[in-house]
Amino acid sequence: MKVAGEHYRTIWPEAGGQVNGSQMVAIIDQTQLPHRFQTLRVDNVAGMVNAIKTMQVRGAPLIGAAAAYGMALAANADAGEPALKQAAHELLTSRPTAVNLAWAVDRMLQVLLALPESERSASAWREAAAICDEDVAINQAIGQHGLAMLRPMAETLKRPLNILTHCNAGWLATVDWGTALSPIYAAHDAGLPLHVWVDETRPRNQGASLTAWELQQHGVPHTVISDNAGGHLMQHGQVDCVIVGADRVTASGDVCNKIGTYLKALAAFDNRVPFYAAVPTPTIDWSMTDGLREIPIEERDADEVAYMTGMAADGSMQTVRVIPAGSAAANPAFDVTPARLMTGIITERGICPPGELQRMIKESNP
Ligand code: MRU
């Protein structure tokens, strides 16, 4: 997608790193958005682990791509089996909830360990690039399936279609295009009049900081709302459809996504508002069927709840405490929306009710 008219992906290899004079990886530092657009260079696996932990890169598909490039950086330094397995372990434990991370690390390990050591480094960069290209193609396809679903909704209205989204499942959460925002970009580009309600998404404010920034860059009409406003808007007919992303989806269609998604699904169910998750198939964990019991939920630092950071009137970045000194805070970062509350799942292979994922994947063309 474009930033000030220039095309960017969220992650890309760059020549000239410090390790063996070989490649390094460039990322967009998402902790600086929406106030500053800054890119960073990462030249070792510890740097990539840190970028994932601190959420300089975040969003399930991008975490997978970053982990793949983390493995390539590890192979630059030492392509022996013990070193690669150690790098895989460090990456796997950097954030627990998004299954894309484990998927990408496993795929890299499988490819690399099957090769002689001398071929692993070059192959690692090729495989990481392939994972990124596949992510872009998947997300474009999700956009087209989503557009086909949104078009008839929009055509029955004499006003713009109102779509609500939670967190950031746009291009910043992927390599390009996004998942939940891909149908929105496709619909906007196809000329469908639409407007997006953007949940702020406390405590990290991915909606307010990242989704709003992305939509603004692309010229999509949007309004940022507090996390508590969605139910009220649904009760008053101001939301036609909800589209969210996902960090892990079970074979039975339970959707794990950013904390607060479940509450929006409950409100949508009560108000008969269609509720969709946009899900690349690498985000489906076929080994799980009970999302509530089986999906590990990341517990992040309570300070993310206790403090807020933003830009002051003089342009400086300031962090302020928003809860009383001495009050405890807790920060579960994801929740699980049971399949029964979802209308459908939009994948690159098509759209289906949540309980029919397996059948759809079997019957659709890859
Ligand atoms: O904690 P984050 O910002 O990594 O969480 C991201 C989300 O929950 C997204 O909605 C999800 O990863 C889908 S991204 C395409």
Write the layout of secondary structure elements.
Layout (H helix, E strand, L loop, with lengths): L1 E2 L2 E2 L3 E4 L9 E5 L10 E4 L2 H9 L6 H18 L3 H12 L6 H15 L3 H39 L5 E5 L15 H9 L4 E6 L6 H13 L3 E4 L4 H6 L5 E4 L3 E3 L4 E4 L2 H10 L4 E4 L5 E2 L5 H4 L8 H4 E5 L5 E5 L12 E4 L6 E4 L2 E3 L4 H7 L3
Parallel strand pairs: 6-7, 6-9, 7-8, 9-12, 10-13, 12-17
Antiparallel strand pairs: 1-2, 3-4, 4-5, 10-11, 11-16, 14-15, 17-18
Helix pairs in contact: 1-2, 2-3, 2-4, 2-5, 3-4, 4-5, 5-6
The structure holds 5-S-methyl-1-O-phosphono-5-thio-D-ribulose.
5-S-methyl-1-O-phosphono-5-thio-D-ribulose binds next to helix 2 and strand 11.
Describe the protein in words.
A 7-stranded mixed sheet has the order 8-7-6-9-12-17-18, sandwiched between helices. A 4-stranded mixed sheet has the order 13-10-11-16, covered by helices on one side. Strands 3-4-5 form a 3-stranded antiparallel sheet, covered by helices on one side. β7, α7 (206-218) and β8 form a beta-alpha-beta unit. α2 runs antiparallel to α5 and α3 (81-92) runs antiparallel to α4. The chain has 2 domains: 2-134, Four Helix Bundle (Hemerythrin (Met), subunit A) (Up-down Bundle); 148-364, Translation initiation factor eif-2b, domain 2 (Rossmann fold, 3-Layer(aba) Sandwich), CATH 3.40.50.10470. The protein has 12 helices and 18 strands. The two termini are 25 Å apart. The model has no long low-confidence stretch (mean pLDDT 96). With 366 residues, the chain is of the alpha/beta class. The protein has helices at residues 45-53, 60-77, 81-92, 99-113, 117-155, 181-189, 206-218, 230-235, 261-270, 291-294, 303-306, 357-363; strands at residues 2-3, 6-7, 11-14, 24-28, 39-42, 161-165, 194-199, 222-225, 241-244, 248-250, 255-258, 275-278, 284-285, 307-311, 317-321, 334-337, 344-347, 350-352. The radius of gyration is 20 Å and the shape is globular. 5-S-methyl-1-O-phosphono-5-thio-D-ribulose is lined by residues 58-61, 98, 167, 169, 173-174, 179, 206, 245-247, 257-258, 333.
